[in-house]
Structure formats: structure tokens, C-alpha cells
């Protein structure tokens, strides 16, 4: 549908067409004289002839120079004279209508072209402005995102440092527990040796005296302390695992944010003149696994979890410190009581050590042989560890086979059989080792019994002075019992 402007332009065109003056031949056919009679060899009129042209007729008059008589053609259209020519197929009205159509089509095409050029220019400007605004907004959003990531990354870094410091303190407490547990072995050995040495008394010296009572109390106390230290060590190990797990999540989150910050920083620094901008495969560009809320909540949860574990670790360190202090004080106090009781009881008895010497030698030889047997068994068990670790590594490695490749194939079955076979071998060796240890323990008890019988031949004074009091000089200090050395 033409627009009002187009209608006005068309009306002007119609008016202009109506003002055109048509030539004389526009309404009636015309013709000319033959060149052979009216024109010379150069195509010019003969001298003395003058052509006068009017509407619908032509007159040729003699000027007097050529001697040609005056000629009047009269009606110029004589069908008999032009019958050999074919009449034109279109009328003058059709000719004008065709021109009008061409004018109209030309104006319409130009008008559409002008509108298209105007719209195209506007569209180019709009899309260019939109692209620049969008790129600026994306850069702004990237920088805002980088700021958020950097803030959370700093929070993670602080918590990681706090957790690392706490882990060091907790590890120090664990070392104290281990040192204290090792330190209790000497008092326990001393107390047990004193008891066993005193058991070698004979006759009236085999009395349930105050020394024996206090020694038994000391052994019981040391074993309770050892059990408490072991349980405390287990709790510390558990807390350290929790701390490491929390720190691992923090480290992983920090590493992810560092990588994301690097990527977003590179994206924010890109511009239209960057060398590495190009078309990419965006098929996975929408593969998000979280939104901003869950993303922030994830980091918040990691930090809260780490803080909770750190608080629990601090409380545990305080408990461990109290345990170590109380245990060291109790053991040292009981040691003083025992030593005081031993000093009061310095009797020694003699017995016929000579009769038991041969038996003691044989038992000692057998202990040596049995200890060698124990070492051989322990070495055999130790030698089974590499095959077992190898089989475990193979099995664990094959668990990472992808999807349908995770088949229960003959190799997998044989690996399980190998693990079972090695385990049965280890169990058998351990059973023998337990039996050998038990045998060695029996031999040790027999040896101590023989030594006791030999010691019976000595006096109780030697037992108390040389076996008890001299040995107790190696009793650890209170600081070592507290795990500081």
C-alpha cells in the first residue's frame, strides 16, 4: 500500500505527464518523401525546396530555384501506399501507461531503497551500541565476580593458615603423647622388674609386704596411664584426620577459586584487538553445576566446618595437656612412695644358684633360638608385605577402569585369589609368630623363675639394693613423663 508521501509524488508525476506536448505524429502516422526525389546525395533537401510541417499534413513548395512546380500532397495517409508496412501493436495510450508504470515502479523502488538504507543505518548504530554496552556490562560483571571470588579466596586463605597453625599445635600435642607413652615403658619395666625380682625371695622373705603393694599400685597406675594416653592419641589422630579433611576441602576450594580467578581475569582483559580471540565450541558453555547462592554457601560451609574442627582441636589440645600433666604428677608421686617402701625393706636371701645354673643356661639358649625363630617369622611376614601391597595396588588401580571396562574378568578374580592366598600365608605366619612369642614368653617366665630360684640363694638385700633401688635411678623425670623430652 503506497504511503501518503508516495501518493503525493505519484500525483505530481501524473500531472507532469499530462503537460507533455505530443509531437504531430503522436496521433497520426507520418511519412516522408523518397530520398531519390527530394534529397540529394548528401541527404539534404534540394535547393529551392522548403519543407513546411503542420499537424496532419505536409506541404512542399517550390522556391523558384529548382524549377520544380508547386506540389501539394493533400491527405498524407493513403493506406494503399503503406500497405507493405506492418502496423505497430501498441497504442499511444498504452505507451504512456507503460511509461507511467515505469515511473511508479522507479519511485517505489527508490523509496523502498531509501527506507532500507535508513533502517540499515539505524540498525547498524543500534547493534554497535548494544554490542559495546553488552561487552562493557559483561566486563563489569566479570570484575564483580572476580571481587567476590577474591574475597572468598582471602577468607579461605586465612582459615587455611589458621588450620595449618592448629594442625602444627595438634601434631606437637600428639608428639607429646607419643613421648609420654614411650616414657611410661621405663617405669613399667622398672616396676615389673622389681616385682619379679622380689618374687625370687624364698621362705619368710616371700611376704606380701608394703613394697609389693606399692609396686602393684605403680604397675596398675602406669597401665591406666598408658591406656589413657593411647585413647588420647587415638582421639588426636581422629581429630587430625578431620582437620586434614577440612583443610583439604579448603585447599581444594582455594585452588578452584584461584583457577577461576585466573580464568575470569583473562576473560576480563580480552578486548577486540586481543590476539587470542576466536570462535570456540560453546556446546558445553551452559554446563554449570551451581548458582551464586549454592557457590557461596559451599565455601561458607567449608569455612564453618573448618572453624568447628579447629575449635574442637583447640579443646582437645587443652584436654591432652591436662591429661599429660596429671599423669606425670601421679606417676612421679607413686614412684616416690615405692622407693620409700623399698628403702625400708632391704633384705636378701641366698639359695643354691649352682644347682639351677645348667637349667638356666639351656633355657637361655632356647630363648635365643626362639628369638631367632621369631625374627625369621617377622622377616617372613615383612616379606609378604610387598606382594600384598602390589596386589592391593593392582586391585585398586583396576577399580578406576571406566564404565563397562570395570568387569570381573579372570585377572580380577585371580587378583582377589592372590590377596586371599597372601593373607592366609600372613595369618599362618602370624599364628606361628604368636605361638613363638608365647613360647618365648613362657621361656622368659621360666628364665625369671630360674633366676628367682638362683636369687633366692642370694639375700633379699641384694634384690632390693641392686635390683630395685639401682634400677629405679633410671626413672624418668616429670618433664619427660609429661612428653616434653
What does it look like?
With 485 residues, this protein is mostly helical. Helix content is 72%, strand content 2%. The protein has eleven helices and three strands, in the order H-H-E-E-E-H-H-H-H-H-H-H-H-H. The chain has a three-stranded antiparallel sheet with strand order 1-2-3, with no helix packed on it. 16% of the residues are buried. Residues 16-72 have low confidence and may be disordered.
Q: Please report the total strand number as a whole number.
A: 3
The share of residues in extended strands comes to: under 5%
The Cα radius of gyration reads 60 Å
Helix/strand structural class: mainly alpha
The run of helices and strands is HHEEEHHHHHHHHH
Anisotropy-based shape:
elongated
Cα end-to-end separation: 104 Å
Extract low-pLDDT stretches.
Answer: 16-72
Can you give the helix content as a percent range?
over 70%
Nearest-integer average pLDDT: 79
- What spatial order of strands do you see in the largest sheet? 1-2-3
Largest sheet: 3 strands, antiparallel
Tell me the number of helical segments per DSSP (H or I, 4 or more residues long): 11
Give the key terms.
mainly alpha, 11 helices, single chain
Short description:
The chain has 11 helices and 3 strands.
SSE arrangement:
Layout: H1 4-18, H2 35-38, E1 49-53, E2 58-62, E3 71-72, H3 92-183, H4 185-199, H5 210-269, H6 292-344, H7 353-383, H8 385-398, H9 410-456, H10 460-472, H11 478-481
Antiparallel strand pairs: 1-2, 2-3
Helix pairs in contact: 1-3, 3-5, 3-6, 4-5, 4-10, 5-6, 7-9, 8-9
Amino acid at each position: 500500500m503506497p504511503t501518503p508521501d508516495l501518493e503525493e509524488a505519484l500525483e505530481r508525476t501524473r500531472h507532469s505527464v499530462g503537460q507533455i506536448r505530443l509531437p504531430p505524429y503522436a496521433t497520426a502516422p507520418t511519412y516522408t518523401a523518397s530520398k531519390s526525389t527530394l534529397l540529394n546525395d548528401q541527404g539534404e533537401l534540394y535547393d529551392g525546396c522548403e519543407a513546411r510541417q503542420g499537424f496532419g499534413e505536409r506541404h512542399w513548395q517550390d522556391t523558384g530555384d529548382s524549377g520544380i512546380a508547386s506540389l501539394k500532397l493533400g491527405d498524407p495517409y493513403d493506406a494503399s501506399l503503406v500497405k507493405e508496412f506492418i502496423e505497430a501493436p501498441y497504442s499511444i495510450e498504452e505507451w504512456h501507461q507503460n511509461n507511467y508504470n515505469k515511473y511508479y515502479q522507479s519511485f517505489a523502488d527508490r523509496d523502498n531503497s531509501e527506507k532500507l538504507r535508513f533502517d540499515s543505518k539505524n540498525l547498524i548504530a543500534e547493534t554497535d551500541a548494544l554490542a559495546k554496552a553488552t561487552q562493557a556490562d559483561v566486563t563489569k560483571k566479570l570484575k564483580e565476580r572476580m571481587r567476590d571470588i577474591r574475597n572468598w579466596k582471602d577468607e579461605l586463605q586465612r582459615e587455611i593458615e589458621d588450620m595449618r597453625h592448629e594442625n602444627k599445635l595438634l601434631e606437637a600435642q600428639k608428639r607429646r603423647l607419643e613421648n609420654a607413652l614411650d616414657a611410661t615403658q621405663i617405669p613399667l619395666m622398672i616396676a615389673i622388674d622389681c616385682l619379679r625380682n622380689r618374687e625370687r625371695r624364698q621362705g619368710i622373705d616371700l611376704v606380701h609386704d608394703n613394697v609389693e603393694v606399692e609396686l602393684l599400685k605403680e604397675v596398675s597406675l602406669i597401665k591406666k596411664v598408658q591406656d589413657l594416653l593411647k585413647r588420647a592419641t587415638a582421639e588426636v589422630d581422629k581429630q587430625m584426620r578431620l582437620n586434614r579433611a577440612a583443610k583439604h576441602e579448603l585447599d581444594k576450594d582455594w585452588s578452584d577459586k584461584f583457577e577461576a580467578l585466573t580464568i575470569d581475569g583473562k576473560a576480563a582483559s580480552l578486548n577486540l584487538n586481543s590476539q587470542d580471540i576466536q570462535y570456540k565450541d560453546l556446546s558445553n558453555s551452559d554446563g554449570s553445576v551451581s548458582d551464586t547462592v549454592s557457590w557461596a554457601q559451599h565455601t561458607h560451609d567449608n569455612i564453618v566446618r573448618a572453624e568447628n574442627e579447629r575449635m574442637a582441636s583447640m579443646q582437645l589440645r587443652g584436654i591432652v595437656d591436662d591429661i599429660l600433666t596429671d599423669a606425670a604428677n601421679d606417676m612421679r608421686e607413686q614412684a616416690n612412695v615405692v622407693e620409700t617402701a623399698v628403702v625400708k625393706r632391704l633384705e636378701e636371701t641366698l639359695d643354691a644358684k649352682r644347682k639351677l645354673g645348667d637349667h638356666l643356661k639351656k633355657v637361655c639358649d632356647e630363648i635365643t633360638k626362639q628369638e631367632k625363630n621369631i625374627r625369621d617369622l617377622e622377616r617372613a611376614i615383612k616379606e609378604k608385605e610387598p606382594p600384598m601391597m602390589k596386589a592391593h595396588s593392582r586391585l585398586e588401580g583396576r577399580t578406576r577402569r571406566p564404565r563397562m571396562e570395570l568387569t570381573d574378568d579372570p585377572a580380577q578374580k585371580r587378583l582377589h585369589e592372590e590377596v586371599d592366598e597372601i593373607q592366609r600365608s600372613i595369618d599362618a605366619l602370624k599364628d606361628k609368630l604368636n605361638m613363638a612369642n608365647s613360647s618365648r614368653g613362657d621361656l622368659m617366665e621360666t628364665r625369671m623363675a630360674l633366676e628367682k630360684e638362683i636369687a633366692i640363694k642370694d639375700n633379699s638385700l641384694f634384690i632390693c639394693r641392686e635390683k630395685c633401688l639401682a634400677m629405679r635411678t633410671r626413672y624418668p623425670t616429670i618433664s619427660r613423663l609429661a612428653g616434653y623430652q
